[in-house]
Write a structure and sequence with these properties.
Elements: H1 3-11, H2 13-20, H3 31-47, H4 54-57, H5 63-80, E1 89-98, E2 101-111, E3 114-119, H6 127-140, E4 147-152, E5 158-160, H7 168-182
Parallel strand pairs: 3-4
Antiparallel strand pairs: 1-2, 2-3, 4-5
This protein binds iron/sulfur cluster.
The site of iron/sulfur cluster has 14 residues, from helix 2.
Length: 205
Amino acid sequence: MSASQLNTIRECPRRWWYYATGAEEREMDNRYADCGSAVHEAIEKHIGGEHPDHGALTADLDDEMYDRYKRCYEKYLAIRCFLSLDHAEAEKELDCQVNGIRLMGRLDVVDGDTVIDWKTGKPSEGERYQAAVYQHLMRENGAVAPRVLFIYLQTGEVSAAPEYPVEYVPTIVEKALATIRSEEYPATGVGCHWCRYAHICGVSR
Ligand code: SF4
């Protein structure tokens, strides 16, 4: 289970159930996600010592998304000067067991005990879970004092997540498991605008 799935169960158990049972997804505007993926790929290459092929990475983006990509990548380059990233690993996959389930995450950058998460959008409530899960994964994989930095590439804002107690993630995992065991998946109406299942959910707001 990932931080994103934990957050989905918290926001709307029905949405998670649709996802888990493979319900048909509606067509969505993926332009922002595609742009975000291209930015992440460019940064991964740059951190790995390669020159990103911007032409290939942005080939499918429209003009608006190309401008967004350019803005984000330039902001990354400006911020990168202030980050040592001596032992940085990009797109690092970590996992661990929590209450009998496998918790996993793919972290944008891990440098020692520091995790950096590049954001091409605005801050969101779900980042709380993301930070807590990343800290937990880092601790379980040997980090002593993990810290998570969110860097917003539209604005250049850097935000350090608070330190979550060791029992925080096991508690939210247990809550999620309790929902799944109950086999009751209420539709809460939270996040409907971005819900891929709004076309089959009668409670959509
Ligand atoms: S449309 Fe809204 S209420 Fe229905 S599953 Fe999606 S998020 Fe939940």
